[in-house]
Amino acid sequence: MHILNVMLGKKAGGVEQAALDYHRALTGQGHRVTNVTRPGAWVDAKLDALGATRLSLPHVAEWDPLAAFRLRRTMARLAPDAVIAHSNRALGLCLAASRGRWPVLAVTHNYSIRRVVKADGVLCITRDLCTRVIELGVAPGRVFHIPNMVETDVPVNDPAPHRPPVIGTMGRFVEKKGFDLYIDALALMRQRGIAFRAILGGTGELAAQLHHRAIAAGLGDVLAFPGWIEDRDTFYAGLDIFCLPSRHEPFGIVAIEAFAHGVALVSTASEGPREIVDGDNGLLTPLGDAGALAEAMAGLLADDARRRAIAAAGRRSAVEDYSMAAGGRRLTAALETLLSTGGA
C-alpha cells in the first residue's frame, strides 16, 4: 500500500514522535510512505535521517483553502491508498483535500476527538479512546485500537544500580505533565534521607517556575535541568527509575520508551498509563499524590530485586506489545480491513 502520512505540528512532542513512528512501522511492513509536514518542522530532520520521502505543505490554518488545494493536487498525483492524519489541523486539511476520493484515517492522540466522526476510519491509541469515539456515533467497524509504538532495537540498561541511584523524567513543561509533583516527591524523599540524583529534561512555559520550585525545595544540588532530551539512549542509560507524574496523559510514549530501555517505571494512574502499566511492568500511584510517588520510588530504591524485575517485565512489554513490528502489523490489519469493507 501507498500511505500519505500527514503531520503538521512544528515542535517536538508526543504527536510528532508518533507520526515518525508510523513511518517506521509502515515501511517496516513493506508499505510505501510519503510524509507531509509543515516547513521547518522538528520531525523533518528525523525523517531525512531515515531517508524518508517528505513533502512540505505551507499553510496558514486548518481551513486554509490554498493549502487544501495544494494537498488535493498532491493526492491526485500520488494516488495513495489511504491518508493518515495526525492532529485536528491535519485532519481538517486532509478531509478538505480528499472530498471523499481518498480514505482519510484520523489518529486520536488526545481527547480532542469530536472532529474524527468525519474521518473514514479512526486509529485510537487506547481502548478508552476507542470507546469514546464509538460513543460519538462512529461505527465500531471504523474504529481501531492502535497503541503508540517504540523502537526496541535500543541499548538495554545494565540492571546494576547507579551510585547514588538516578531518577529521571522528561517532557514539555506544562501543567498537565505534573512536574511540580515530581519535584515535590523528590523533596519528600530527600527529607527522609534517601540518597539520589535526579533529572528533569524538557522545555516549556513553566521552566522558570519549576526551577524556582526545585531550589526552594532544597534540590538544587541533586536535580539537573538539561533541557530538551535529544539523545534518548544516553538519557535512559543513566537512569534507575523513570517517573511519569502526569495529571493527564492520553498515552505516554515516554513510558514505553522506558520499557524498551529496561528502566523501571513509576507512573501516576492517568488515562494512558492505566492501560499500559499492569503492576508487573511498572507501578501506578494515584493522580496528584506526590507522597504516593515518593513512596513508590523510595520502595524500588530500597528493593533492588523488585526494581530489576519491573524493569525486565517492562522490556518484555515493549518487545511484545509496543514494538515497531507489532504496531506495523496492527496498522496493516486496520488498513486492510477498512479498505476492504469500507468500515461497515
UniProtKB/TrEMBL annotation:
Q: Which GO terms describe its molecular function?
A: glycosyltransferase activity
Sorted keywords for this record are:
Glycosyltransferase, Transferase
- Glycosyl transferase family domain location, by residue? 160-316
CDD domains xrefs:
GT4_GT28_WabH-like
Identify the InterPro entries for this entry.
Answer: Glyco_trans_1, Glyco_trans_4-like_N
Q: Which residues form a coiled coil?
A: none
Q: One Pfam family of this protein, by short name? A: Glyco_transf_4
Glycosyltransferase subfamily 4-like N-terminal domain location is: 13-153
Cite the SUPFAM superfamilies for this sequence: UDP-Glycosyltransferase/glycogen phosphorylase (SSF53756)
By sequence similarity, the record places it as follows:
Belongs to the glycosyltransferase group 1 family. Glycosyltransferase 4 subfamily.
Q: What is this protein called?
A: Glycosyltransferase family 1 protein
